[in-house]
């Protein structure tokens, strides 16, 4: 079960993930990111501080935007991950491919 | 100790699978980080099975067995009578290809293989058994 909220701060779209993302809920993450891009945001910050779990289905969503964002000069930064979620990204080396900040302040700097 | 969970093939049931694994392993003092990695690998195996072998039909069931004995590797068995999806037969795609093809899948097999020590398939009494083994630290 995942709840997703979006707030706009300093021209960035902040997508807040609350709960768990798995094969049944990854579509909601995909839709939220697609909506943000569709509305023209070029700075997308993903707040993971209330994200308890992410499966490969959720990781795949982030991966699927990497090239498109490079081409369209959209900056996506994830931040606030707990240790277990951070470990999930690093098992696959995704921490090298995605921009991941410690907190929102750092994420904003990385996106600017 | 032997724990058994029967699961209908709806991906809505994955949350229950994860809770079952967490509770079973925490009973034995397995660390949070190890539990979380195992949960990740089994979530992947179970969701593959639900989606690819059972078309997410909630009336079709399979079983997850967990055998935990102190100072031995933990053994997980996924017991099913659907078709076999042997992940050992699939080479995991390179990360670069996953990005390039905008594939939302393909990461899972890589994940299971990096987390589990051993993945074996066997047929016992007409059932397909996928046995995954993982050495853990017991506190």
Automatic annotation (TrEMBL), chain A:
Organism this protein belongs to: Pseudochryseolinea flava
Any matching Pfam family: STAS
Protein name in UniProt: Anti-sigma factor antagonist
InterPro entries per the UniProt record, alphabetical: Anti-sigma_ant, STAS_dom, STAS_dom_sf
GO molecular function ontology, one term from the record: anti-sigma factor antagonist activity
Domain STAS: 2-112
Source domain of life: Bacteria
Family, similarity comment: Belongs to the anti-sigma-factor antagonist family.
CDD domains: STAS_anti-anti-sigma_factors
Automatic annotation (TrEMBL), chain B:
Name of the protein this chain belongs to: ATP-binding protein
InterPro entries assigned: Anti-sigma-factor_SerPK, HATPase_C_sf, HATPase_dom
Signal sequence, renumbered to the chain: none
Organism per entry: Pseudochryseolinea flava
PANTHER family: ANTI-SIGMA-F FACTOR RSBW-RELATED (PTHR35526)
Annotated Histidine kinase/HSP90-like ATPase domain residues: 12-134
Keyword terms, alphabetized: ATP-binding, Kinase, Nucleotide-binding, Serine/threonine-protein kinase, Transferase
The keyword Nucleotide-binding is annotated on this UniProt entry: yes
Statement: the UniProt record of this protein carries the keyword Chaperone: no
């Amino acid at each position: 079960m995942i709840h997703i909220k979006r707030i706009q701060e300093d021209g960035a779209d902040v997508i807040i993930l609350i709960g768990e993302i798995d094969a049944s809920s990854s579509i909601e993450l995909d839709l939220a990111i697609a909506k943000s891009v569709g509305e023209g945001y070029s700075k997308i910050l993903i707040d993971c501080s209330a994200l308890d779990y992410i499966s490969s289905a959720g990781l795949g969503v982030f991966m699927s935007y990497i090239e498109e964002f490079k081409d369209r000069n959209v900056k996506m930064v994830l931040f606030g991950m707990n240790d277990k979620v951070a470990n999930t990204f690093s098992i696959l080396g995704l921490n090298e491919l995605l921009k991941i900040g410690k907190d929102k302040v750092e994420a904003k700097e990385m996106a600017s | 100790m032997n724990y058994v969970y029967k699961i209908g093939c709806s991906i809505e049931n994955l949350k229950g699978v994860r809770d079952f694994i967490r509770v079973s392993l925490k009973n034995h003092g397995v660390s949070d980080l190890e539990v979380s990695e195992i949960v990740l690998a089994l979530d992947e195996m179970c969701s593959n099975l639900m989606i690819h072998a059972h078309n997410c039909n909630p009336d079709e069931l399979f079983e997850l067995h967990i055998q935990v004995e102190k100072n031995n590797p933990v053994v997980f068995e996924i017991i099913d009578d659907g078709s076999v999806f042997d992940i050992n037969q699939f080479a995991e795609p390179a990360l670069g290809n996953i990005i390039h093809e905008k594939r939302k899948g393909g990461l899972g097999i890589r994940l299971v293989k990096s987390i589990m020590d051993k993945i074996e398939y066997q047929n016992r009494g007409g059932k397909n058994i996928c046995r995954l083994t993982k050495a853990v630290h017991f506190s």
